[in-house]
């Protein structure tokens, strides 16, 4: 009689697994309907590329082919070509080490910034990539994800020739509205109001809407 019961139980378990997809607790012999765990967003969704990080000696990086990149405009402001300049973060800056990197007293960016010798050559090459023909002195060779937000210092994916804002007076030098946005995001990250990843993602999505997206005004 005992063996008959065991065979019947095994058959019930097998039938449950094959036909109904339910889960079975073998320890108690009881069966319960399966429940899928709450599906979380994919870890790779919207993931920003990781660059090489700070280097002791920077070299001039190859840029996208001349004329292959195209500016787009949102809210009247020039934005990068997402294919040419998708952004890249530095592996040296993480949520766990903010106090010793971008949020440390005394500053962080001056120690990791590439020399003007390197960035000057890259800027001219990148201007050709974007077909930029304006005054170079009014355009910024910009880190899409700024250094103060953990952007990679010299990854070509994180650098682009940013034209002057509309209405900017020619010859007055670099002065654009993206810089104050980056500073406000940096402050919010260091105060713990937003995460580093949220700030980085907001910038690569659209810097003109980054503050509104993160409810920072």
What does this 3D model show about the protein?
The protein has five helices and eight strands. The protein has 217 residues and is an alpha+beta fold. A hairpin with a 2-residue loop joins strand 4 and strand 5. The termini are far apart. Mean pLDDT is 81; it is low at 1-45.
Short description:
The protein has 217 residues and is an alpha+beta fold. The chain contains five helices and eight strands. The strands form four sheets. It has a two-stranded antiparallel ribbon with strand order 1-2. A two-stranded parallel sheet has the order 3-6.
Biggest pleated sheet: 2 strands, antiparallel
Adjacency order of strands in the biggest sheet: 1-2
Strand portion: 5-15%
Q: What is the number of strand segments?
A: 8
Element order: H for helix, E for strand? HEEEEEEHEEHHH
Question: Could you name the key traits of this structure?
Answer:
two-stranded parallel sheet; 11% strand; alpha+beta; single chain; disordered N terminus; 217 residues; two-stranded antiparallel sheet; 5 helices
């Amino acid at each position: 009689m005992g063996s008959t019961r065991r065979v019947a139980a095994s058959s019930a378990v097998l039938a449950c697994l094959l036909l109904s997809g339910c889960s079975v607790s073998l320890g108690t012999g009881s069966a319960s309907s399966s429940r899928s765990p709450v599906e979380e967003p994919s870890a790779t969704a919207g993931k920003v590329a990781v660059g090489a990080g700070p280097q002791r000696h920077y070299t001039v990086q190859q840029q996208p082919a001349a004329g292959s990149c195209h500016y787009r405009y949102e809210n009247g402001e020039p934005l990068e070509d997402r294919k040419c300049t998708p952004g890249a973060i530095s592996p040296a800056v993480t949520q766990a080490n903010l106090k010793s990197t971008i949020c440390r007293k005394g500053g962080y960016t001056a120690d990791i910034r590439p020399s003007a010798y390197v960035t000057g050559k890259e800027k001219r090459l990148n201007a050709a990539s974007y077909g930029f023909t304006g005054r170079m002195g009014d355009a910024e060779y910009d880190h899409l994800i700024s250094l103060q937000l953990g952007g990679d210092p010299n990854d070509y994916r994180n650098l682009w020739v940013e034209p002057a804002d509309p209405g900017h007076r020619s010859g007055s030098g670099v002065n654009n509205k993206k810089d104050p946005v980056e500073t406000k995001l940096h402050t919010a990250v260091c105060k713990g109001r937003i995460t580093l990843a949220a700030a980085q993602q907001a910038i690569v999505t659209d810097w003109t809407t980054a503050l509104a997206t993160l409810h920072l005004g």
